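name: query_chain
kind: protein
chains: 1
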Amino acid sequence: MGFWKTARRLNNIFILGYWSVTMPKQCSVPVQPVRDRIVQTTMKGIKPKNILVIDEFKRNNVSLDLDSRGELAHGFMTSKIIEDGLPNANVYKKDIGNPFLESDNYIKDSIAEPILKDMRAGKRYDAANISLGVEVGFDDLSEMLGEEITSKNIASKKRKVKDYLLNNPDKTVKRQLLVFKCKSKDIMPLVDCMDSLSSKGTKVFVSAGNDGKNKFNLLSLIDNSITVGALDKKGGKTYYTEDHSLVKRWAKGNIPLKKTDNGYQIQFDKSTKDIEKSQTTGFWHATLKNDIEGTSFSAPRALVEELNK
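structure:
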């Protein structure tokens, strides 16, 4: 009896401690304004390159402090890396919602069709960055297709997987929290759209994903896409990166973060971003992280490296 009393007390202490540390002082902070970066003049008359960034710009989902609420939009982080590395490039930003939460045909109607319409009107991009996706286990892919799909053979099976998903639009490819479903028709219109861009010469960079070696980002099915995995500070592959035969490039996956007297400072590749305490949600001015990590940040770095060649 004494053991269970002690266990319950320790559990209550843990819960109390957890909530006291992660308790928010406010539920949300304003999202950074979404503005395309347009270069007015170029050096030596060189025509500026056009970069398309498809990401989440209207929802703060990158957390800096101890709570689970975000202070910055994911798209702000990825586009900032590109703007730092390509100061003479136009950066066009396209907001994309969470495919689990959006209505049917959202990606097709709100993302793919407008991009294709711009293409038909003559719009061209030198490169595109997509640091997001829908990650599916190789076991699940194997079950769907009725044959073994592995991290080693996914490159040779890419066309077969792609054709299957295009021909089965109502197939559920992933579930989240048992309630939300993502079907093939929710993600494949973006793959189809980016195929069209790729056919016109756009280099499409896709983040590999952060769920380890047993998962696969469906956006890696884009024709001629460059799937980028994450390296750690020492140049080795990170523990979280997805790693399979379609991962063609590797780049650093961390962005340094430190606590300052007045808030936090994010160290991008060529600039810093200061976030004041008043712009954060956490009750405590503290962080457990020295870095913000993910293949999301490897993909734009690979893009910058490629276009700077």
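note: The chain has a mean pLDDT of 89.
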